[in-house]
Amino acid sequence: MQPIRDKDFDQLFKDAFADAEVTPSRDLWSNIESEIAPKKKRIVPIYWLSAAAVLLIATIGVLIYQQQDTTKRGKQLANNTIGKDKPAVQEPIVKDSTIKIVEPVENIAPVLSVQPKAVSAIAKTKVKQEVVKPVEKQHIVTAPEMQKQETMIAQVEDPKKDIKAQIDAVILAQPKVDMVTAAIASPVKTDEPINDNEQNIKNIRNVGDVVNLIVNKMDKRKDKLIQFRTDDDDSSLSSINIGPFKIGKRNKK
Amino acid sequence: MEGCKAGDRKMQELLYKQTASKMLAVCMRYAKDRMEAEDVLQMGYIKIFQKIKEYRGDGSFEGWIRRVMVNTAIESYRKNLRSLNVVEIDEAYEQPSTGFDFGTLGMQDLMKVIQKLADGYRMVFNMYVIEGYSHKEIGETLGISEGASKSQLSRARAILKEEIIKMEGFGYATYTG
């Protein structure tokens, strides 16, 4: 046999492959299909995420600023009220830290129950003109709101009562009023932040909870600025409310 | 084809089903094995569906698809260009003195022999012999000289002939023994 020429050799290959077919794997089309499918779905959440992140940082900043402010005020208040507390209730000396203040709060409770009696006592005995003085005194003590309400009640009831009869009793009772009202004020104020923190820690399971918590503090509207659904492990955005621009599953219901 | 241009998924699938097995045969010639070939096939079809609007209708549609596929295969080779195994085998493969009969060899046997070639040889042989590129075009596409293309082609031929004789001898032995 003659050695085959290059031309013929090439032609043999060309013919062999001219109509060649090899069946591809079955799942190859689905691979191609998923590659050519639009990928828009994945891009959108990134925008939301970055928006949420910016919001989170901003709100955390504001929150920290506010908390610093309130704790300062809380401490001042605590100092004042405790000072008044000491002689009357005779509790062990409490120091400045807000956490320790919680303990005496429960012990003071019995004193609180006495409060209505004390108030009514004042009401019976006070004269209009005399009432003015204790009010001013109490203002200096800086115990807030609660005091005012009590004295208001006292004022309303005053005219009905016998004026002269028990003036002496008023003078005796007055120091007690001061300390009682002070005691009421202090538990209310100091209690608040601590309970809050405990709740916070219990409810936080994921990032969505953190955001919700912060937004809840800042935004008291029914439709919050931003809210996450956190019932499942993964938190997912459930609603947004930025002025005229609202998104929310709540709206659909 | 119009459906494919519009991005109709069902039309795209139809086009794939009608042409894929032929195109896989093309890819197989350029690849080392089936897996590599199917990777190229996938890339090729993605490219086809992206570029289908550029097809002006000159020449057959299948020819256009085939060209895209071959280009994809070449591109993939150039990307991978794994330390090109250009084995120096000048003396090892001389022109075989005996002729041989192709009758016993099917397309699949030839495919196996081509896939055994070193990557560079396989590229040149496919492009020149099957696709009909000139040595100049091959040189430009693969980034080698025209002379290198020519010498690689003749080496590829020599290797293929040697391998085919081996296969035939093996086949003959099994027939008799």
Automatic annotation (TrEMBL), chain B:
Q: Which GO terms describe its molecular function?
A: DNA binding; sigma factor activity
Query: Ranges for the RNA polymerase sigma factor 70 region 4 type domain?
Result: 108-158
Task: Tell me where on the tree of life, at the top rank, the source sits.
Answer: Bacteria
What the entry lists under Pfam families is as follows: Sigma70_r2 (PF04542), Sigma70_r4_2 (PF08281)
Q: Which UniProt keywords apply?
A: Sigma factor, Transcription, Transcription regulation
User: Residue ranges of the RNA polymerase sigma-70 region domain?
Assistant: 15-80
Protein name (record): RNA polymerase sigma-70 factor (ECF subfamily)
What is the source species? Pedobacter psychrotolerans
